[in-house]
Amino acid sequence: MNSKTNTPALEIKQLKAWYGESHVLHGMDLIVQPGEVVTLLGRNGAGRTSTLRAIMGLTGARKGSIRINGVEAIGLPTHRIAHLGVGYCPEERGIFSSLSCEENLMLPPPLKTGMSGMSVEEIYAMFPNLAERRHSQGTRLSGGEQQMLAVARILRTGARLLLLDEISEGLAPVIVQALARMITMLREKGYTVVMVEQNFRFAAPLADRFYVVEHGSVVERFAAAELQEKMPVLNELLGV
Ligand SMILES: Nc1ncnc2c1ncn2[C@@H]1O[C@H](COP(=O)(O)OP(=O)(O)OP(=O)(O)O)[C@@H](O)[C@H]1O
Ligand SMILES: [Mg+2]
């Protein structure tokens, strides 16, 4: 246990964000404790991706407060935010097609967090597929392998707060199961995970807590233990 156990890994208060003139987040409030897995649910265009992007400083203007391990990040540029120990895995994954699996893995430099990232050996132990495919070109990897590589790559940097956007999207059920095992493993290792998911069945058994986002703000929040009683509300909000 470190001395910061009372400090949330992520604390967002009244976050507003814009893309140019377009106002997309209207006062988001979100709190994530170290080691928690939190899922952001919502309909298409609700503002979940924008929330992750705003945390990373990748939207236009931002207002409000985003504290990462207690440090205010609202005025910081993206690279400084990353160095607070944040790993962002965007929906488009960002695997370089001309590089091999291993070259992609080695690409991002370690973060200056003082926390060491996973070694290549640890990563290959956790993702045996990637070990097998280490010399394959990025484009030759399956969608599932690319997704695992995209996550593995941020684990190597030493990031402890992981922002994962729709990692299960478009992948075969067997791969989605492997990703679910990965999230469980990361949770056991003490990582903090914020994941955006459209696939409710994937997210439901994994998350400690859920937030429902609509029109750029939080409209519902509940813990895993409340999931059953919240189903009617979720059905109404999300059609799940
Ligand atoms: N680069 C952008 N410029 C302008 N508006 C944007 C941009 N990206 C997203 N938006 C708008 O911001 C709103 C929130 O989009 P966002 O991508 O955050 O939604 P989401 O909850 O991730 O949904 P989904 O991924 O299903 O589309 C939408 O109205 C969207 O059209
Ligand atoms: Mg999105």
Strands side by side in the biggest sheet: 6-7-8-3-9-10
Distance between the termini: 38 Å
Order of helices and strands: EEEHEEHEHHHHEHEHEEH
Output the CATH class name.
Alpha Beta
Topology:
Layout: E1 10-19, E2 22-32, E3 37-42, H1 48-55, E4 62-68, E5 71-72, H2 78-82, E6 86-89, H3 101-106, H4 120-126, H5 128-132, H6 143-156, E7 161-165, H7 173-188, E8 192-196, H8 200-203, E9 209-214, E10 217-223, H9 227-238
Parallel strand pairs: 3-8, 3-9, 6-7, 7-8
Antiparallel strand pairs: 1-2, 1-4, 4-5, 9-10
This protein binds adenosine-5'-triphosphate (ATP) and magnesium ion.
Verbal overview:
- A hairpin with a 2-residue loop joins strand 4 and strand 5 (71-72).
- The model has no long low-confidence stretch (mean pLDDT 94).
- This protein has one domain: 3-Layer(aba) Sandwich (Rossmann fold), CATH 3.40.50.300.
- It has a six-stranded mixed β-sheet with strand order 6-7-8-3-9-10, sandwiched between helices.
- It is built from nine helices and ten strands.
- It is 32% helix and 26% strand.
- Magnesium ion (MG) is lined by residues 48-49, 196.
Summarize the model shown.
The chain has 9 helices and 10 strands. The protein is an alpha/beta fold and 240 residues long.
Salient structural properties:
Rossmann fold, 9 helices, binds magnesium ion, single chain, 10 strands, 240 residues, globular, binds adenosine-5'-triphosphate, alpha/beta, four-stranded antiparallel beta sheet
